[in-house]
Amino acid sequence: MTFKDLDLSNQLQYGIDDLGFQNPTPIQEQAFSVVRSGKDIVGIAQTGTGKTFAYMLPILRDLKFSKQIHPRVLVLVPTRELVLQVVDEIEKLAKYINVRVLGVYGGTNINTQKRAILQGQDIIVATPGRLYDLGLSNALKLKAIQKLVIDEVDVMLDLGFRFQLMNIFDILPEKRQNVLFSATMTEDVDLLIYDFFKNPEKISVAVSGTPLDNIEQVSYNIPNFFTKVNLLNHFLKDKETYHKVLIFVGFKRTADLLFKHLEEVFGSETCVIHSNKTQNYRIRSIRQFDEGKNRILVATDVMARGLDFDDVSHVINFDTPDFPENYMHRIGRTGRAEKEGKTILFSTEKEQESKEGIQALMEYQIPVLELPEEVEISTLLTEDERPREDQGISKNRTSLEFVPGAAFHEKSEKNSQVNLGGSYRREIAKKYKKPKTRGDKNYNKHNKKK
Ligand code: ADP
Ligand code: MG
Fold first, then answer.
1. Domain 215-376 part of CATH 3.40.30.10
2. Considering 107, 192, 194, 290, which has the largest number of Cβ atoms within 10 A of its Cβ?
């Protein structure tokens, strides 16, 4: 597909030509008509796949010339640097279009920004904090906003912007299109979508062309959390082979639980990072791991993106990511710069489907190894693994981050509109709680025999 197939305006096509782009990237191709349709959309694609233009092309395509003061499009990004970058990209793309774009962010004079806003803008690109301050002042009127773009949603949430986003949702017109883009699909991203957006169309572009040849992959079928811990301990006792081990888990509470158990055995050799840890704690953990002071690092997926460590001996997937892209992000932390890397995948019966997704994406069957004889099969179940009634998930979520307020009402209203009642809740609960059933015991026996 070429840009010609996208039904761009001539002006946009000239902008593209000047940029020297030949073809739209897959996410650009797939997002174009969905963004134009006005539906809420969530786009997931690896870093560097052209997500900025995936939302800007269709938005610019349909943005009519206007002299009105109040902006119609709001783009939220997590950092100042990104504000500048996105503004710059929009300006290049819109070289032949009469559109007014302004970037605003904290740490600079707010009055200068207010004056610029009052001159009239079409698109505002902002960090959440500054946008909220401006929105509360009289300078920025948000009532004309028709499209809200949240770019780099995973980073946004990882930096703790959830509150800020909720506050912003409160002061935006309810009738608007929501456009979300992220490099990874994390639990936090999923929850944000579930809480605030109406049946968004999800577009997920698989990671492609990832060099896998220098990464040796193996997998184990394991019945439950504590057996996974036993196997992990078994590996980690061999300090020479497992000299720099990065362990990935999908959820913060799994990270904390696992860390607790590893710490009992390996003490200060272990550290953990996830988005509920303070910035300082995270920076310290990352440094100590990279320098070799800590041999073992437990991390959640969202952390996988920025991390660049030398000579990781093993990446261990303590759980099997639901989104195959996350597996690619994870294992990409080893085998860097042409070095040999090793990765091990742990999967329960419930996780087999996710594993199949990963294998389909890679077009590669990960060899399954038998559990070593010495590793004890645990019959203990974690609280999350125990079968339970439809409860707990909402309690759990609200205890994480709950701010009563209009945003909350917006949420309940939306939920009732699309009737996401008990069954959806159970679905989510199933997904995050991974309740275990008795069938797993047989699975385990079956496994051992194989
Ligand atoms: P992401 O947000 O997915 O990380 P960006 O939107 O920042 O990616 O784009 C990454 C780079 O690719 C930018 O330099 C951008 O100008 C360039 N780019 C975007 N779209 C195309 C395209 N269709 N063809 C070639 N290069 C592109
Ligand atoms: Mg981007």
1. no
2. 192
